[in-house]
Design brief:
Chain A: Belongs to the TPP enzyme family. Chain A: Its cofactor is thiamine diphosphate; Mg(2+). Chain A: This is Acetolactate synthase. Chain A: Pathway: Amino-acid biosynthesis; L-valine biosynthesis; L-valine from pyruvate: step 1/4; Amino-acid biosynthesis; L-isoleucine biosynthesis; L-isoleucine from 2-oxobutanoate: step 1/4. The complex is a heterodimer of chains A (564) and B (165). Chain A contains 21 helices and 20 strands. Chain A has 564 residues and is α/β, with parallel strands linked by helices. A six-stranded parallel beta sheet of chain A has the order 3-2-4-5-7-6, sandwiched between helices. With 165 residues, chain B is of the alpha+beta class. A four-stranded antiparallel beta sheet of chain B has the order 2-3-1-4, covered by helices on one side. A four-stranded antiparallel beta sheet of chain B has the order 6-7-5-8. The relative contact order of chain B is 0.19. The chains are: A alpha/beta (564), B alpha+beta (165). Chains A and B meet through strand 6 of A and helix 1 and helix 2 of B. The structure holds thiamine diphosphate. The site of thiamine diphosphate (TPP) has 20 residues of chain A, from helix 16 and helix 19. Thiamine diphosphate (TPP) binds next to helix 16 and helix 19 of chain A.
């Protein structure tokens, strides 16, 4: 039996066992939406902006490990989605994003709502397709899911002209993908791994440097095992928060621009750095020629382009991280390692002497206190998303993450407006957890309309605004590096956030004391409704420690008196 | 020891890279986009389908330091429609040039020089002659240089094709 292209899209999503799609309709994609109306097996969540549809799919994908799916229309629908695609690409999030396109007969004529979508998405997707013929659709969708979720994951974009969704063809969903040109390397090189393990075993101050790839490859628990077996300390990047679990004694903390003293010193002093799914991002390494200067480098990554892109690598290993770490565990069992007790206790001493801290206050709420308190109250019962800015860094520093996929943040692109829609995707994918979004008074206004989506779909996201009446992170740089010229970062004029969320049908709070905050949080959890807690926090707080741009990791500004 | 010395090693090298890629409308733009987005050079690029297959071969001549060349090869390999990337070490390279020269120039001189570069006169009209030559890229560069004396009206170079010896 022949079916339309639109029906093929739906049937393909059924074959992929998709259970939720985030999207927004429009002219060029209406055939597909008509089929969405008729089908009954996946939920369609109508976001109020296409960017949010993509971020919601990201939050869903990041927190559940499944592929996120979004559908948008041509032209403005698609261009709105681009920021989301770029965000997912930078953080290697598996997504399949389908867009409508004008009919093939109109392509190239500057038709109504026509835009060269595959031209725009090319640099911000892992792969993309323009479907010219309805008979290619099932194969392309199959390939898209495969490409998005294997190798180094990433977003895949499928652009479908309107006449292709109307056209009919025979539907047979392929069982296998036949892509002779795409074969990600899963298996590491055995000899190379052996050499690397010998080098690690002989080193005196080895260090596991763990990145977001560890979470994408689902091998956090294997990394814990490997660390315990070898007694090698671990530092995490922003994207790897949750890999070790914050009470693990071998975790030395997060490293990088706002990393911990101990973690940055560990990277500075190590004589053998073992990168597990990390990519030597400039926010992590600080001044590159000073980073891990004394160390031999073992770099393990599924993506060969990541290896030796920035640093010379003594032991490059391409392979799936889980498979490789499992092999490292086996080899480690038969290998004699040096004794790292002193090295570990040195780093733990650093951590004790220079812990992450802030000067708490009773007269005003400190933003760090809010995050720490939520951590104490909710701990592993919550999945945390953030927007971008100071609140994001404080969340990475002060929330006690205990499992992988507990922390969703826009790392690579640093997209303000990510938090609320991502937390919405988290809420949809994890009904047994509380979805918290730590946000700023700047960021929240970038996708505030999604409160409506949350209310409509009963997604009880709790947004906690750390309201400092500034674009805080930019103001921080102005204070530190621009002689306090506060150019366009003062947000003294603000909406009434409590009324705003209530206008959408959620619950709102504005709190000025610690006690009020705890009451509001408890109330919001109890009500199980989309909520916004507007917390008035001290205005001039600065995120510390900080490695100033272009400095080495050991040249940090520590937590001192300037953080009143 | 410093892991990052080579990062500053800026000695520029020239490389001929051939890429076997699936014939699809997007393929060329993917490859060119990769170079432009990352600030890599393309000195020349030629494309033609491989007979009897669904693939095309592209020959790209590029320059950059070792790290850049390394990244180019890896990034090309990473593109989904790319089957194979060859970084040639020992190749035969050929390039063709077409040059149009006004008819009032000393034709016999031109003919002699062209023959020295394996070239010859292709076409003659009332106003101009067209000569062509096919040779190694560096010799084609020389030839074009010399021909500039004869006030060429148009010069068209084909770009390099290459094959492993
Ligand atoms: C879409 C976008 N625009 C601009 C920026 C630059 N930027 C980074 S942090 C920041 C300030 C964020 O302010 P706010 O959300 O209030 O958070 P705070 O830093 O005060 O915690 C800005 C403007 C960005 N990251 N994303």
């Amino acid at each position: 039996m022949k079916i339309t292209g639109a029906k093929m899209v739906i049937e393909s999503l059924r074959e992929e066992r998709v259970d939720v799609v985030f999207g927004y309709p429009g002219g060029a994609i209406m055939n597909v939406y008509d089929e969405i109306y008729k089908q009954g097996f996946f939920q369609h969540i109508l976001t109020r902006h296409e960017q949010a549809a993509i971020h919601a799919a990201e939050g869903y994908a990041k927190s559940t490990g499944k592929v996120g799916v979004a559908i948008v229309t041509s032209g403005p629908g698609f261009t709105n989605a681009v920021t989301g695609l770029a965000d997912a690409y930078m953080d290697s999030i598996p997504l399949v994003v389908i867009s409508g396109q004008v009919p093939t007969t109109i392509i190239g004529t500057d038709g109504f709502q026509e835009i060269d979508a595959v031209g725009i998405s090319r640099p911000c997707t892992k792969h993309n397709y323009l479907v010219n013929d309805v008979k290619d659709l099932p194969r392309i969708i199959k390939e898209a899911f495969h490409i998005a979720s294997t190798g180094r994951p990433g977003p895949v974009h499928i652009d479908i002209p309107k006449d292709v969704t109307a056209d009919v063809g025979e539907f047979k969903y392929p069982k296998e993908v036949d892509l002779p040109t795409y074969k990600p390397t899963v298996n590491y090189n055995k000899r190379q791994l052996k050499k690397a393990m010998t080098a690690i075993a002989k080193s005196k101050k080895p260090l596991f440097y763990v990145g977001g790839g560890a979470i994408l490859a689902n091998c956090a628990y294997e990394i814990r095992e490997l660390a315990e077996l070898t007694n090698i300390p671990v530092v995490e990047t922003l994207m790897a928060r949750g890999v070790m679990g914050d009470d693990h004694k071998l975790l030395i903390g997060m490293l990088g621009m706002h990393g911990e003293f101990a973690a940055n010193m560990a990277a500075h002093d190590t004589d053998c750095i073992i990168s597990l799914g990390a990519r030597f991002d400039d926010r992590v390494t600080g001044r590159l020629d000073e980073f891990a200067k004394k160390a031999k480098v073992v770099h393990i990554d599924i993506d060969p382009t990541s290896i030796a892109k920035l640093v010379h690598t003594n032991y490059p290993i391409v392979g799936d991280l889980k498979v490789t770490v499992e092999a490292m565990i086996e080899t480690a069992k038969e290998t004699e390692f040096n004794d790292y007790t002193n090295w570990v206790s040195l780093l733990r001493d650093y951590r004790e002497k220079e812990p992450l801290r802030f000067n708490d206050s009773d007269s005003v709420i400190k933003p760090q206190w809010v995050i720490k308190r939520v951590g104490e109250l909710l701990g592993e019962n919550a999945i945390i998303s953030t927007d971008v800015g100071q609140h994001q860094m404080w969340t990475a520093q002060f929330y006690p993450f205990s499992f992988p996929r507990q922390f969703n943040t826009s790392g690579g692109l640093g997209t303000m407006g990510f938090g609320l829609p991502a937390a919405m995707g988290v809420a949809r994918g994890n009904k047994d957890k509380i979805s918290i979004n730590f946000t700023g008074d700047g960021s929240i206004l970038m996708n505030i309309q999604e409160l409506m989506t949350c209310v409509e779909n009963k997604l009880p996201v709790i947004n906690i605004i750390l309201n400092n009446s500034y674009l805080g992170m930019v103001r921080q740089w102005q204070t530190l590096f621009y002689e306090n010229r506060i150019s366009q970062t003062d947000l003294s004029l603000q909406p009434d956030f409590k009324m705003l969320v209530e206008a959408f049908g959620g619950v709102g709070y504005r709190v000025k004391t610690k006690k009020e905050f705890e009451e509001a949080l408890n109330d919001a959890i109890e009500k199980k409704k989309p909520a916004m807690i507007d917390v008035v926090v001290s205005r001039d707080e600065i995120v510390l420690p900080m490695v100033p741009n272009g400095h080495a990791l050991n040249e940090m500004t520590l937590i001192g008196d300037n953080n009143e | 020891m410093n892991n990052f010395n080579h990062y500053y090693d800026t000695e520029t090298i020239r490389r001929v890279i051939s890429v076997i890629v699936i014939n699809e409308h997007n393929a060329l733009s993917r490859i060119v986009g990769l170079f432009s987005a990352r600030g890599y050079n393309i000195d020349s690029l030629t494309v033609a389908p491989i007979i009897g297959s669904e693939y095309s071969r592209m020959t790209i001549v590029t320059t950059g330091d070792k790290r850049v060349i390394d990244q180019i090869v890896k990034q090309l390999n990473k593109l989904i429609p790319v089957l194979k990337v060859n970084e040639h070490q020992n190749v035969i390279e050929k390039e063709t040039v077409l040059i149009k020269i006004p008819i009032d120039q000393p034709l016999s001189d031109i003919d002699v020089i062209a023959r020295a570069y394996n070239g010859h006169i292709q076409n003659v009209t009332d106003d101009a002659i067209v000569i062509s030559a096919t040779d190694e890229p560096s010799r084609i560069a020389n030839f074009t240089n010399i021909m500039s004396k004869f006030k060429p009206l148009e010069v068209v170079r084909s770009g390099v094709v290459a094959m492993e010896r």
